[in-house]
């Protein structure tokens, strides 16, 4: 196997999921190369080597400064064509999904997404893939090379093996259309206040709340339970709640003792951020909502009816435990 | 970083890629190893957001056009009429037995062929197909059409031939700009899709609905369906066992039941 792992980075750090995939690739075969594309990224090569790359290709060019996918497709396609990698792996993010799918079209190469395991079976690479809201696990493969794969968020932990790698600069030649999209502004999160990642109890709200004003319901329940408030991307994108409280693929990963999901459908991209919770309770009015597949207790009902009462009951319990006077 | 309000997309031609998916009871057929598409079908709910955004951009500009483009079985037309009823102007469906079982490589190729013919200024995609959860199609199509791409867009404006989109990544929000013609995938938070009016539903039947075969598009059979696909499914298995899940219907005592459960699990 000759594998290329695409490494994403942010503010001078390689992404944890990228490094996790690199470690997995190194475990599957010893010829593992990494591609780092960006501007001023030379310093990242040593880190890639420590986490399993035996060769690092650097595409270092001001045109690659913004994390946009299309120029990265150009660079990766050239590199793959030149070196004939048979396997190209990505830790799934907003950026890498677009790079991988662009490459699939450019190279006429099969892309399997959302993989949670990769194994060699009789010399054949097989991906394990949960589908249909994780109700089935499918073994998938590729009919030709290169084989492209996106690995689900949070799947493989990085393994520091402490190796060294040869580093090679690659030529950056971009297609006309690849540079038409430009980054105008990037607003990164400033973290303030306690992070939901440390919370012991989380009460999370989704679009089922019906409007931003109803986050008050969530806040009261969270207060009663001594927990923090979280939200789905749908409500964060809609401006109902701040991004710093978002749980999921593009938000925080949390594993509290108790996670209460209110008016949340339970999409995979949300699940990957909270499936490590010890106990999950969900209220949703749709009996077919995917969240019920993995909630320890699922209540089919209207959150507006149930939550105020729940808050009252919890408050009453608290008062009984800590009687006044 | 508020984005100024939409300016009309004067005379813009907008293509919306819309997938028709099973309504309920989703399963993979153990025989064909494909998704069972025999039951009721519906418009992919995430694509209703793309249709809504197209209609918003079109506004009351009679010179603008919203065309739905879909790849799927012939009977998809029934479900696509919902988008016509919302206000889209016409539909082009690529329906061909030979396209069944297409993966991303094959389906993006066929879609790109229709879109090339349509030559839209803006190609809109939904956030993801809710049967496959790929959230990737746009990037393959944009590459084939050699057009700029903006994905996961939660807010967009068009002015002076430039589209500007705001979108979330793992690190916060980006604002990205690209000139038309451009491919854009929208997030499910971008808008609240309208319900079709009775008049819309009545009118939908009369709107142009074109069905094309692969040969109409000049797509060779070996680039479609399983022949044109580069991925395959070997086996379908059970998910790993997980702890017991309980589901109850709220009969007015939901809150009490939750408290009981939390006490039982020592989570209170
Ligand atoms: C690349 C990518 C990254 C993503 N990252 C994230 C992420 O980090 N985090 C995330 O959350 N999502 C993420 N998403 C989006 C995700 O796919 C879903 O679209 C999103 O999680 C849906 O949010 P929701 O559950 O609030 O809304 P919906 O899916 O609209 O669900 C609302 C739910 O509320 C229920 N409901 C309505 N009214 C009531 C009521 N009165 N009482 C009880 N229940 C009610 C409905 O039945 C429904 O199930 C991502 C998507 C993509 C493509
Ligand atoms: C459970 C399951 C898992 C699958 N896994 C893979 C896989 O790993 N690799 C692979 O190559 N194929 C896979 N497929 C097949 C793949 O779904 C189809 O090839 C499909 O046509 C491509 O859709 P997508 O999943 O990429 O859609 P997405 O990328 O999720 O769709 C995004 C948007 O693209 C547009 N769109 C998608 N499909 C169509 C269409 N047919 N017509 C019009 N517009 C459309 C819609 O606007 C949609 O909102 C899978 C299918 C299923 C049912």
Describe the structure.
The complex is a heterodimer of chains A (about 325) and B (about 270). With about 325 residues, chain A is an alpha/beta fold. Chain A has two domains: about 5-180, Rossmann fold; about 200-320, Rossmann fold (3-Layer(aba) Sandwich). Chain A is built from eight helices and 18 strands. In chain A, the strands form four sheets. Chain A has a seven-stranded parallel sheet, sandwiched between helices. In chain A, β2 and β3 (about 15) form a beta hairpin. In chain A, α3 packs across α4 and α5 packs parallel to α8 (about 305-320). Chain A is elongated and about 70 Å long. With about 270 residues, chain B is α/β, with parallel strands linked by helices. Chain B has one domain (about 15-230): 3-Layer(aba) Sandwich (Rossmann fold), CATH 3.40.50.620. Helix content of chain B is about 25%, strand content about 30%. In chain B, a hairpin with a 2-residue loop joins β8 (about 160-170) and β9. In chain B, α2 (about 75-85) crosses α5 (about 200-205). Chain B is globular, with a radius of gyration of 21 Å. Chain B starts with 12 loop residues before the first strand and ends with a helix. Mean pLDDT of chain B is about 95; it is low at about 1-10. At the A-B interface, α3, α4, β7, β9 and β10 of A face α3, α4, β7, β8 and β9 of B. The structure holds flavin-adenine dinucleotide (FAD) (2 copies). One flavin-adenine dinucleotide sits at the interface of chains A and B.
């Amino acid at each position: 196997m000759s594998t290329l792992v695409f490494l994403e980075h942010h503010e001078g750090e390689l992404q944890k999921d990228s490094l996790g995939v690199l470690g997995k690739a190194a475990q599957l075969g010893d010829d593992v190369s990494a591609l780092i594309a960006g501007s001023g990224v030379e310093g990242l090569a040593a880190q890639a080597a420590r986490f399993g790359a035996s060769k690092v290709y650097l595409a270092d060019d001001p045109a690659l400064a913004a994390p946009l996918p299309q120029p990265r497709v150009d660079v990766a396609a050239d590199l793959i064509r030149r070196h004939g990698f048979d396997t190209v792996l990505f830790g799934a993010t907003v950026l890498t999904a677009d790079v991988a799918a662009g490459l699939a079209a450019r190279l006429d190469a099969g892309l399997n997404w959302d993989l949670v395991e990769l194994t060699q079976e009789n010399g054949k690479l097989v991906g394990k893939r949960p589908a249909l809201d994780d109700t089935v696990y499918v073994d998938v493969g590729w009919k030709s090379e290169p084989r492209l794969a996106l690995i689900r968020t949070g799947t493989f932990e990085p393994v520091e093996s402490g190796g060294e790698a040869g580093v090679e600069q690659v030529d950056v030649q971009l297609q006309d259309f690849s540079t038409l999209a430009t980054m105008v502004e990037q607003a990164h999160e400033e973290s303030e206040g306690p992070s939901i990642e440390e919370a012991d109890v989380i009460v999370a709200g989704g679009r089922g709340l019906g409007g931003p004003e109803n986050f008050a319901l969530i806040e009261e329940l969270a207060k009663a339970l001594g927990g923090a408030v979280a939200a789905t991307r749908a409500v964060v994108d809609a401006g109902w709640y701040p991004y710093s409280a978002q749980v999921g693929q593009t938000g925080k990963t949390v594993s509290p003792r108790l996670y209460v999901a209110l008016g949340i459908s339970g999409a995979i991209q949300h699940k990957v951020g909270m499936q490590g919770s010890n106990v999950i309770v969900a209220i949703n009015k749709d009996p077919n909502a995917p969240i019920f597949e993995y909630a320890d207790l699922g209540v089919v009902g209207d959150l507006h009816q149930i939550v105020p009462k729940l808050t009252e009951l919890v408050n009453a319990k608290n008062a009984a435990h800590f009687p006044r006077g | 970083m508020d984005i100024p309000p939409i300016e009309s997309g004067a005379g813009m031609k907008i293509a919306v890629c819309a997938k028709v998916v099973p309504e309920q009871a989703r399963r993979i057929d153990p025989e064909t190893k494909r998704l069972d598409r025999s039951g009721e079908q519906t418009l992919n709910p995430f694509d209703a957001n793309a249709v809504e955004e197209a209609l918003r951009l079109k506004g009351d500009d009679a010179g603008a056009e919203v065309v739905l483009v879909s790849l799927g079985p012939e009977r998809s037309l029934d479900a696509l009429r919902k988008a016509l009823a919302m206000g889209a102007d016409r539909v082009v469906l690529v329906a061909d037995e030979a396209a069944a079982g297409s993966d991303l490589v094959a389906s993006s190729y066929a879609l790109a062929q229709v879109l090339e013919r349509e030559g839209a200024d803006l190609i809109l995609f939904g956030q993801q197909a809710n049967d496959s959860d790929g959230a990737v199609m746009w990037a393959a199509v944009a590459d084939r059409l050699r057009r700029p791409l903006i994905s996961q867009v939660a807010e967009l404006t068009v002015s002076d031939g430039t589209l500007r989109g705001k979108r979330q990544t793992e690190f916060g929000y980006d604002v990205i700009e690209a000139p038309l013609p451009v491919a854009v995938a929208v997030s499910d938070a971008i808008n609240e899709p309208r319900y079709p009016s009775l008049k819309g539903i009545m009118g939908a039947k009369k709107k142009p609905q074109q069905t094309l075969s692969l040969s109409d598009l000049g797509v060779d059979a070996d680039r479609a369906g399983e022949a044109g696909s580069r991925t395959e499914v070997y086996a379908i298995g059970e998910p790993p066992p997980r702890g017991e899940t309980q589901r109850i219907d709220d009969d007015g005592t939901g809150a009490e039941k939750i408290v009981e459960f939390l006490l039982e699990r020592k989570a209170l």
